[in-house]
Amino acid sequence: MTKENAIKLFQDQRVRVHWNNDNEKWYFSIVDVIGLLTNSVNPNAYWRKLKERLKKEGNETVTNCHGLKMMAADGKMRMTDIADTEQLLRLIQSIPSPNAEPFKVWLAKVGYERIEETEDPELAFDRAMETYLKKGYSKNWINQRLKSIEVRKELTDEWESRGVKKGSEYAILTDEITKAWAGFTTKEYKKFKNLKKENLRDNMTNLELVLNMLAEATI
């Protein structure tokens, strides 16, 4: 199970979803997901009890979840608790349901693979190559993409050594680099390509990847 497959289930009509364009995240109705995974006759009551238990355990995911008005079954906009992808996957680990087991197995597999990659970073490139091939990319494009990852890593390592903070400062510098060769900020470029959560570089042509690499390598 890939992350795309894991989340695709929750973009089914039975689960209300919301795309936040500002932070580029999908948000999911928690009670809808609970109803789907547990077949509970009262998902709201199930969520209340689960939330209470997790709060007592000091679970930060529950604390960080917030509400949003979504269309209810009666056709009215009502507040409901929502979670982003990361929060949702963490909550699923706390749901004792056979329907949740495939997600738990997938999460355990991903965690194990990340530990392996820490011990042997070359595995990350091998898995990336395999993933891109399954998605139908050409070997020539994949080689360019993997090279772009290497160049990006060298650049961010340099930023880190100079005290640049990850997150907003990385985003600002990346925007400046992108504007230098493409005339767009990252967010503008994604909008131009009609992308949402998809990775911008995974949707670049060979030429775009090369231009981006040249810009990052000459900073």
Please report the distance between the alpha carbons of the first and last residues.
Answer: 38 Å
Structural class: alpha+beta
Say what oligomer this is: single chain
Show unreliable segments: none
H/I helix tally? 11
The major sheet is characterized as:
4 strands, antiparallel
**Number of β-strand runs:** 4
Strand order of the largest sheet: 1-2-4-3
- Share in helix: 55-70%
> How many domain modules?
2
Strand proportion, as a percent range, falls in: 5-15%
Overall geometry: globular
Indicate the radius of gyration in whole angstroms.
Answer: 20 Å
Order of helices and strands: HEEHHHEEHHHHHHH
Output mean pLDDT.
Answer: 86
Short description:
With 219 residues, the protein is of the alpha+beta class. The chain has eleven helices and four strands.
3D structure, described in words:
- This protein has helices at residues 3-8, 30-38, 43-56, 60-64, 85-92, 101-119, 122-134, 139-161, 168-182, 186-192, 206-217, and strands at 17-20, 25-29, 66-71, 77-84.
- The mean pLDDT is 86.
- 60% of the residues lie in helices and 11% in strands.
- With 219 residues, the chain is of the alpha+beta class.
- The chain is built from eleven helices and four strands.
- The protein has a four-stranded antiparallel beta sheet with strand order 1-2-4-3.
- It folds into two domains: 3-115, no CATH class; 121-217, no CATH class.
